Amino acid sequence: MSDTKVFFGVSLELAGKTISLEPKNAINEIKEKGIEVELPAGERVYLGTVGTSLNSILQTLGAVESGTTASFLNDDGTLNSNELPDIQVLQDAASVLVEAGLYVDEFHVRIPGAATENGKVAKDKTAYTVGLSAEWQEDSGQLIDGLDLQLKGVYFKISNEE
Q1: How many CB atoms within 10 Å of residue 58?
Q2: CA 105, CA 154: separation in Å to the nearest integer?
Q3: Could you tell me the sign of the dihedral formed by the alpha carbons of 86, 62, 67, 99, in that order?
Q4: HSE-CB for 5 with a 13 A CA cutoff
Q5: Which of 105, 117, 84, 114 is closest to 157 using CA atoms?
Q6: What angle do CA 99, 101, 104 make, to 5 degrees?
Q7: Nearest to 37 by CA among 16, 58, 7, 60
Q8: What are the pLDDT digits (tens) for 88-104?
Q9: Structure confidence by residue, pLDDT tens digits, 27-55
């Protein structure tokens, strides 16, 4: 008969959205194995549009004064084309990008415990992976007219894990 294990995860807030992270180690294993949490497989969290999320991030970083909007964005997160060069293709591309839906597709954090190797504490470092995707709305990613091929979005991943 196996012992009952108790797990404890965390929920983070990013851009006003809650991201619940599933625990990988039981509470009684944390001292040895550390803390490891991740977004459950197949789950993704919608953060809003790239424009609204970008403005929130810029405010948090102090690049834009709190309560104000970046000059190239309107209050609703859409593009303020008056702040860009008068080049239509550039304005169209920027508009598609800021109106894209932004999602967290992958989120993993591991903070090592005091596990030992040959009597010495292992020198593991804190590890993380974050994967974000931006998906265009409707058919705005049409690459070639007449061909059923569309760019639906982009995926960005940052990690210090091997």
Answers
A1: 16
A2: 12
A3: positive
A4: 11
A5: 105
A6: 145
A7: 7
A8: 878 878 888 888 899 99
A9: 998 888 888 999 999 999 998 888 888 87
d(CA 93, CA 60): 25
Place of tokens 């807030």: 13
pTM of the model: 0.74
| Residue 107: other Cβ atoms inside 10 A | 23
Angstrom distance (rounded) from CA 129 to CA 106:
7
| Tokens 């992958």, residue located | 106
Phi and psi angles of residue 110, each rounded to the nearest 5 degrees, phi first = -130, 120
Compute CA distances 41 → 21, 58, 89, 107, whole Å. 10, 29, 38, 10
